[in-house]
Write a structure and sequence with these properties.
single chain; 197 residues; alpha/beta; Rossmann fold; 7-stranded mixed β-sheet; 6 helices
Length: 197
Amino acid sequence: MRIIAGLGNPGTEYALTRHNVGWNVIDHLVDRISAGSPQTKFGGAFWGPLTLGKEHVCLLKPYTYMNNSGIAVGELACFYKVLPADILVVVDDINLPLGRLRLRMRGSAGGHNGLKSIIAHLGSMDFPRLRLGVNSCPPGRELADWVLGTFTSDDRDIIDRSIEKASAFCVQWCCEDTEKLMNSVNSCDVRSQNGEA
């Protein structure tokens, strides 16, 4: 059994913000694989178990708000006895430029409160995370305002392509060799795929 959890905040006011790209990836993935309507379960929107490739997979969008994401992820992992290495967490990353994606198999929270909560509730940093770049916070602007802000129309086009690629990578995570997938993800820049710098 594997889990793919996309992090974000519930509520229409957060739907298109930088902090909700993890949720957006799950929404795109649900459409991609025709997963249907979710149940409200395990502290969030829940789909599963589903079959992707050779794997049984659960999809989760925690409703516990970003800073308490670990409550929902931990509850689901405990119920199905899923090891941290089999939990893929999809998050925004202000340390990556818009259009870049990164896959790592383990690591610290890197200042991300959602990852910090998951590490605390799983008791481990050894879970993979797929990060989508949303650009760094501009000088003089509050970080909370930045991550809870929306994209410009030009940036929205780029992040939508990032979300589409990320959902495809989520499917591949269930079907392919991890090292091969890391090479594909970490060399991905959706801006260059459209001839942009």
